[in-house]
């Protein structure tokens, strides 16, 4: 019987936890509905912090992200954290085993340079998964976790 690593145990524990949590499709965009309509069935976050809070309390099955998220407040000159900042944070949490990889990731930004940077991050995550033989989707994560549990019985 193979011993599972701490990382694998964390992923398995998160899968069990996710079975009892809400799952959401996350739409991160600071534009209102009149400028860019959110697809039906998604939950809107308009800032980095709001997106992080939603991820911490729900299982994210879909990410649909904008790059530019405006300023920190309407009267502020301070540029807010971007969708790219959020994606870096999310991928970091995946690598720590705190979150599973969403089934679907889309970047809907009009900022072409930002969009390309974010798509590279997604590709890097996919390569990391492939190199470490980590499953790529939640469905695969569930199959993988089940196989790890059987192997350790």
Which helices and strands occur, and which strands form pairs?
Layout: H1 6-20, E1 23-28, E2 42-45, H2 48-57, E3 59-65, H3 83-96, E4 104-107, H4 112-131, H5 138-151
Parallel strand pairs: 1-2, 1-3, 3-4
Describe the overall structure.
- The protein has helices at residues 6-20, 48-57, 83-96, 112-131, 138-151; strands at residues 23-28, 42-45, 59-65, 104-107.
- It is globular, with a radius of gyration of 17 Å.
- It has five helices and four strands; from the N terminus they run H-E-E-H-E-H-E-H-H.
- With 153 residues, the chain is of the alpha/beta class.
Number of strands: 4
The assigned structural class equals alpha/beta
Q: Looking at the chains present, what oligomeric state does this protein adopt?
A: single chain
What strand line-up does the widest sheet have?
2-1-3-4
Largest beta-sheet characterization: 4 strands, parallel
The mean pLDDT is: 78
Percentage of residues in strands: 5-15%
Taking the alpha carbons of the first and last residues, their distance comes to 8 Å
Care to give the gist of this entry?
This protein is of the alpha/beta class. Helix content is 48%, strand content 14%. The model is unreliable at 135-139 (pLDDT under 50).
